[in-house]
Fold:
Amino acid sequence: MQNDRDVIGEWPQQDLVDPRGRVFEEKKAEKAQEIESRPIQLTHGKVGLLSNKKPNADAMLQEVQKGLAAANPGLTFVYGCKEPLAERAPESVIESLLGCDAVVLASAECGGCSSWVCRDYITLEEHGVPCILIATNRFEKLSRLVLTAGGIKSPRLAIAPHPVSGIPAEQAQAKIRAMMGHFTAEILGSKAEVEVKVENV
Structure:
């Protein structure tokens, strides 16, 4: 009869799986190159809105657009989206957002959607476009982990009370209205309100 040591010794070595989609051996793991996020400056007065088509993602982005437009009527907006449950945003969508001064992404509210919308965030930041991600408080930690693993030194997140999908669109929009100070602070420069988080709405 084999002892435990013999049995354990027969176990095959396992590879680690990177949540960003790469398979690598632990000893060969490469640290992601750090990405220094550019400060948001309204050089062109253009804000991008990228939806991952989670329920109410579009409704929340519409509310962000409405609030920013009210604060600065001179802004223009570029909308981009990907198919529901898609992994990454198509290259054509990413390219359409490259001329923006900032991009707001929605939304991170589950494991899969959080990971992939963070990948879109990283891609845009790699191209020098500052981003803000709408995430719920239950997926804030995961979103930060994925973003920092992707090289983002200081992720910009707008944290909404969970949930934002599975509720009427009006309720999701009310949560965005309650945190508009965060978006105007980050994008329009009222830094006093940047750290505000929203209580349940």
Observations:
- Residues 103 and 131 are 5 Å apart (CA to CA).
- Residues 111-126 form the longest helix (16 residues).
- Residues 46-193 form a domain with the Rossmann fold fold (CATH 3.40.50.10350).
